[in-house]
Amino acid sequence: IVDKTTALTEIEETFKMLVARDDIAIILINQHIAEMIRYVVDQHIASIPAVLEIPSKEAPYDPSKVRLLLYYDLPA
Protein backbone atom coordinates (compact mmCIF):
# COMPACT_ATOMS: atom_id res chain seq x y z
CA ILE A 1 0.00 0.00 0.00
CA VAL A 2 1.34 3.39 -1.00
CA ASP A 3 0.57 6.44 1.11
CA LYS A 4 1.99 9.94 1.42
CA THR A 5 4.89 8.69 3.55
CA THR A 6 6.01 5.98 1.09
CA ALA A 7 9.37 6.82 -0.44
CA LEU A 8 9.64 6.88 -4.23
CA THR A 9 12.54 4.42 -4.08
CA GLU A 10 10.38 1.99 -2.11
CA ILE A 11 7.65 2.20 -4.76
CA GLU A 12 10.19 1.57 -7.53
CA GLU A 13 11.86 -1.34 -5.78
CA THR A 14 8.55 -2.98 -4.86
CA PHE A 15 7.32 -2.68 -8.46
CA LYS A 16 10.55 -4.21 -9.78
CA MET A 17 10.31 -7.05 -7.26
CA LEU A 18 6.69 -7.77 -8.21
CA VAL A 19 7.31 -7.91 -11.98
CA ALA A 20 10.25 -10.26 -11.40
CA ARG A 21 8.18 -12.83 -9.52
CA ASP A 22 6.97 -15.84 -11.48
CA ASP A 23 3.93 -16.43 -9.28
CA ILE A 24 2.21 -13.14 -10.15
CA ALA A 25 0.14 -12.77 -13.32
CA ILE A 26 -1.46 -9.32 -12.84
CA ILE A 27 -0.32 -6.20 -11.04
CA LEU A 28 -2.91 -3.52 -10.29
CA ILE A 29 -1.49 -0.05 -9.75
CA ASN A 30 -3.26 3.26 -9.36
CA GLN A 31 -2.56 5.44 -12.37
CA HIS A 32 -1.29 8.36 -10.29
CA ILE A 33 1.22 6.04 -8.58
CA ALA A 34 2.28 4.61 -11.96
CA GLU A 35 2.91 8.18 -13.12
CA MET A 36 5.32 8.63 -10.21
CA ILE A 37 7.45 5.72 -11.50
CA ARG A 38 6.49 5.94 -15.19
CA TYR A 39 10.05 5.30 -16.40
CA VAL A 40 10.10 2.02 -14.43
CA VAL A 41 6.59 0.97 -15.50
CA ASP A 42 7.41 1.65 -19.16
CA GLN A 43 10.51 -0.56 -18.95
CA HIS A 44 8.28 -3.56 -18.23
CA ILE A 45 7.43 -4.89 -21.68
CA ALA A 46 6.58 -8.51 -20.88
CA SER A 47 2.95 -9.57 -21.15
CA ILE A 48 3.14 -11.46 -17.85
CA PRO A 49 2.72 -10.11 -15.34
CA ALA A 50 0.22 -7.74 -16.91
CA VAL A 51 0.33 -4.28 -15.38
CA LEU A 52 -3.11 -2.67 -15.19
CA GLU A 53 -3.38 0.99 -14.27
CA ILE A 54 -6.59 1.66 -12.42
CA PRO A 55 -8.38 4.82 -11.25
CA SER A 56 -8.23 6.07 -7.69
CA LYS A 57 -10.23 8.46 -5.56
CA GLU A 58 -7.21 10.75 -5.15
CA ALA A 59 -6.55 11.61 -8.80
CA PRO A 60 -8.46 11.80 -12.09
CA TYR A 61 -8.04 8.91 -14.50
CA ASP A 62 -6.56 9.69 -17.92
CA PRO A 63 -7.14 6.84 -20.40
CA SER A 64 -4.72 8.42 -22.89
CA LYS A 65 -1.81 7.60 -20.54
CA VAL A 66 -2.51 3.86 -20.51
CA ARG A 67 -0.08 1.74 -22.50
CA LEU A 68 -1.73 -1.35 -23.91
CA LEU A 69 0.35 -4.39 -24.76
CA LEU A 70 -1.38 -6.91 -26.98
CA TYR A 71 -0.06 -10.42 -27.39
CA TYR A 72 -1.31 -12.80 -30.00
CA ASP A 73 -0.21 -16.40 -30.23
CA LEU A 74 -0.31 -16.73 -34.00
CA PRO A 75 0.04 -20.13 -35.64
CA ALA A 76 3.39 -20.78 -37.33
Total of helices: 3
Biggest sheet strand line-up:
1-2
Q: Compute the CA-based radius of gyration.
A: 13 Å
Topology, number of strands: 2
What proportion strand?
5-15%
Mean pLDDT: 86
Query: What is the approximate shape?
Result: globular
Polypeptide structure, described:
This protein has 76 residues and is an alpha+beta fold. It has 3 helices and 2 strands, in the order αβααβ. It has helices spanning 8-20, 31-36, 38-43, and strands at residues 26-30, 50-54. It has a two-stranded parallel sheet with strand order 1-2.
Main attributes of the structure:
single chain, 3 helices, V-type proton ATPase subunit F, ion transport, ATPase_V1-cplx_f_g_su
Summarize the structure.
The protein is α+β, with helices and mostly antiparallel strands and 76 residues long. The protein is built from 3 helices and 2 strands; from the N terminus they run H-E-H-H-E. Pfam families: ATP-synt_F.
